[in-house]
């Protein structure tokens, strides 16, 4: 296993070593957005904005499936890293195995429930007679591909924790590139419409899934599948630790419905298309924060599991410096480049284009605050305290956002929709800063963690 995420003392921590782990992690997060973003670009260019709106309407279903995967992938991989850092390989293998089995089983159950009520669910999500057929086609292939969708997410996270961030990046890269190529062939050349876009996405995910499987079959890393000592308790612990990511995805699903329905009231299908474009573009900025934070998470987990709290503090100082600069650069880039980004999805002389550019500039103010919130949540998860991580994510992605989506548009119309995210991020920042500054002031093992370690040793 590569040692990029192992630091035995604070003096070993160097920016170059941190970047060796962080850069591939960010690039992985970036290419993960390709699977739907490229679909949107090609569908908008070759089919139209109504089809683009259909993808956005279906996306809450994708969010739920992805949320199941990420709950086990992020939570389970953090637990595995804590165990590996503490020299408890058997426990790490169990966390890995139960995460794979639990997530795929739960995902398939959810997929079956959605499939049996698909038309009703799509109507609730905002599908209209104009978009219903495209919605059904796009949803069908995501539901069919559930094991691959979930398995791909799991493998990229556990490969990273296994000490191979570059391989994890290449796994996502290969699938992303295939998705782009197939979108061009199916949608651009063969005019297969939204069917072609969905096939391109699923086949790209299949390639990433296969490459992930090969890693654990061919290579002998630290993590291995096991049949011994598996328990529902371990699976629940992994899932709860990663609950923040499930909450985030579920919140995105719910708030997307509210976004779509509110935009429909004020601007019709054009409003939904503008929301869709901004949802795509925000992935690029949020992906930077998410990739950075997830890049630091495994080294933090390893150090915490090994009780190297001095290492944790040094790694956190790198995060603090990043978060003092990146938000201002991010928003400046968002404001200046919004016309360029939107032009990939809508014609410059269209109503959707003007609406999305202005909306992106207002919505983008949230990037000034979301970086701290995201890092604070992932930091707590890396230390095995997923319940605190879940609280931060619940506030920024669901409770406060939903509140402002209901209240602000009553006063400011579409501007209120765009400002809901910045408002939610600002209030969440108060809680996030509390965790960063005061909890824990000095890193110490909790009683629960010491009991867990004692049980493992026995």
Structure characterization notes:
This protein is mostly helical and 458 residues long. The protein is built from 17 helices and no strands. Helix 11 crosses helix 13. It is globular and about 60 Å long. The model is unreliable at 445-458 (pLDDT under 50).
The geometry reads as globular
* Gyration radius over CA: 21 Å
- Low-pLDDT parts are 445-458
| Helix/strand class | mainly alpha
Number of helices, where a helix is a run of at least 4 consecutive DSSP H or I residues: 17
Q: Separation of termini? A: 27 Å
Fraction of residues in helix:
over 70%
Largest β-sheet summary: none
Beta-strand content: under 5%
Please report the total strand number as a whole number: 0
Mean pLDDT: 84
Give me the strand/helix succession: HHHHHHHHHHHHHHHHH
Write the layout of secondary structure elements.
Blueprint: H1 15-32, H2 34-46, H3 49-85, H4 89-116, H5 118-125, H6 132-144, H7 146-161, H8 165-189, H9 193-218, H10 232-241, H11 243-305, H12 309-343, H13 351-363, H14 367-382, H15 386-412, H16 414-438, H17 447-457
């Amino acid at each position: 296993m590569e040692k990029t995420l192992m630091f035995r003392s604070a003096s070993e921590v160097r920016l170059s070593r941190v970047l060796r782990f962080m850069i591939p992690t960010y690039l992985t997060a970036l290419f993960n957005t390709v699977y739907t973003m490229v679909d949107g670009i090609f569908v908008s260019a070759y089919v139209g904005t109504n089809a683009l709106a259909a993808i956005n309407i279906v996306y809450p279903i994708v969010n739920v499936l992805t949320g199941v995967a990420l709950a086990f992938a992020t939570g389970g991989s953090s637990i595995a890293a804590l165990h590996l850092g503490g020299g408890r390989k058997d426990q790490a293998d169990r966390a890995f195995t139960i995460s794979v089995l639990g997530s795929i089983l739960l995902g398939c159950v959810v997929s079956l429930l959605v499939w049996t009520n698909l038309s009703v669910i799509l109507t609730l999500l905002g599908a209209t007679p104009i978009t219903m057929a495209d919605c059904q086609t796009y949803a069908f292939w995501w539901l069919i591909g559930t094991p691959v969708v979930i398995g791909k997410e799991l493998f990229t996270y556990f490969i990273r924790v296994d000490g191979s961030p570059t391989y994890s990046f290449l796994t996502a890269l290969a699938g992303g590139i295939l998705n782009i190529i197939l979108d061009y062939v199916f949608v651009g050349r063969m005019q297969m419409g939204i069917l072609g876009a969905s096939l391109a996405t699923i086949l790209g995910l299949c390639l990433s899934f296969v490459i992930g499987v090969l890693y654990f079959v061919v290579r002998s890393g630290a993590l291995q599948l096991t049949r011994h000592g598996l328990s529902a308790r371990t699976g629940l612990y992994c899932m709860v630790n990663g609950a923040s990511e499930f909450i985030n995805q579920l919140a995105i699903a719910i708030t997307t419905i509210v976004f779509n329905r509110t935009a429909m009231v004020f601007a019709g299908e054009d409003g939904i298309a503008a929301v869709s474009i901004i949802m795509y573009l925000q992935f690029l900025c949020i992906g930077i924060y998410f990739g950075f934070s997830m890049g630091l998470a495994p080294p933090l987990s390893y150090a915490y599991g090994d009780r190297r709290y001095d290492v944790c503090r040094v790694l956190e100082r790198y995060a603090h410096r990043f978060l003092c600069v990146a938000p201002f650069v991010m928003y400046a880039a968002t404001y200046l480049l919004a016309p360029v980004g939107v032009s990939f999805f809508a014609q410059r002389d269209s109503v959707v284009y003007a609406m999305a550019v202005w909306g992106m500039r207002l919505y983008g103010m949230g990037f000034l605050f979301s970086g701290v919130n995201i890092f604070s949540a992932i930091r707590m998860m890396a230390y095995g305290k997923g319940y605190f991580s879940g609280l931060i994510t619940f506030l920024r992605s669901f409770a406060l956002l939903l509140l402002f989506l209901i209240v602000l548009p009553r006063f400011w119309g579409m501007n209120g929709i765009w400002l809901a995210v910045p408002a939610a991020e600002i209030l969440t920042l108060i809680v996030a800063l509390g965790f960063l500054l005061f909890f824990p002031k000095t890193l110490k093992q909790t009683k629960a963690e010491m009991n867990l370690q004692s049980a493992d040793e026995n």
